[in-house]
AAA+ ATPase domain-containing protein (Urochloa decumbens), 494 residues
Amino acid sequence: MDLSTVVASSPSYGSKAVDAYKKAAATAATVTAYAVLARGVARELLPDELRDAARWAASFLLRGGARMRVPRRRRTFVIRRYDGDGYGDSSLFEDASAYLATRVDPHSMSRVCLSRRRSRDDDDEDYGAFGYCDGDKEGGGGGGHVMSMEVGASMDDVFEGVEFTWTSMTNCDGHDRQAASLELSFDAEHTDMVLRRYVPFITASVEDARRRDRALKIFSCDNGGSWRGSSYHHPATFDTLAMDPELKGSIVADLDRFLKRKEYYRRIGKAWKRGYLLYGPPGTGKSSLVAAIANYLRFNLYDLDLSKAESNSTLQCLLTSMPDKSILVIEDIDCCFSAITRSGPEKSAEQNADERPPDAPPPPKGQGITLSGLLNFVDGLWSTSGEQRIIIFTTNYKDRLDAALLRPGRMDMHVYMGYCCWEAFKTLARNYFLTDDHPLFPEIRELLSEVDVTPATVSEMLLRSEDVDVALQGLTECLQEKKQGKEIGEGGKA
């Protein structure tokens, strides 16, 4: 029996269905009306927090609690900028602004602030307006533009898998003046992470970037006992340095370890400094290594001529006035002090003159400079007058130095700069001619193993022609002549 037969046989069935439908529709309309009324009342009378809680509870009940979590409590830190009025320090604001500049993506943000990037010469110490810079794409260094957030704009940053929201604001600073600020918002449960890891990460990243982007200077002392500086643009780097690759790698690793050990030095109670003694024959690249270290660390150089300091007091003033993150260089330290031990008898001026090489400069004329005065700065009472300092002594004759200069804690790493080896030559060939192979390479390699020639001599020969064939042929002939002279000399001795 089909449905039409049932309806036809029961006249009251259709009317009952219609009545039931009408009652259901009326009930739904009533519920809807009450819901609209309740929503209006709630919007007018209930606070926002209560409405959010009620909305969450209703959603939780309707969905049976599935896939629902309690709303997380948010926290906001406000980082203000102070305009040098003594009411606060703006360094954290500057660090945060510089950090966010590295996170700006002009392709995903509708509004960004565009500004000119300062060149290195605009401000040597504070240079560091880095970030998204179109000039950097071509290695322009000082050109290009910097992008940053516009006032009122927001951007997200992710650190250790946690999302943070930054907002650029302008607020009243409490003295009826408008002051820029940055608001950092995040889930409150990550408060410890922000204070202990995120903010320190931001400041460390900015400090490292500014250090690597700063313009370098080299300072020398004048007769009045003060420093005079000028721009320093030496092109030497560890990539272009002609020396043994293993030794080069150990120096870089030592410098990296030194930079990261601030808390370590503080914990063991030692001054945060590192000493390097560079020794070897003239022309082996000691000055180039100093330049490479300066370029790698981005530390300014302080070239100390001890003949300009008339007394230990003047020397002390010069050394203690050096800022943090600097490199003290004393070249040819063997010519500055006579090779005596402090417990032994002092040698006469005639004896010292006889022991100096013919081409060495005369010793300093200062009346009161002593080795003890210098050592007092290296690791004595005045060694803690600054932090993150590098001390470099160079000498052609290590055996003539006072033993007090050589012990650990003063010169921590002794670096021998020897004659040109095969690996050093390959670096020079790559620097000058962008080549890693040549038919003359096997012969040159054999000759370098038999004769002593400095990297400076090899460089001079390679500079004589821009044609790689001509230059390498000239170098080969030079090495052959040295080999023949060596054989003649050994034959004469025999």
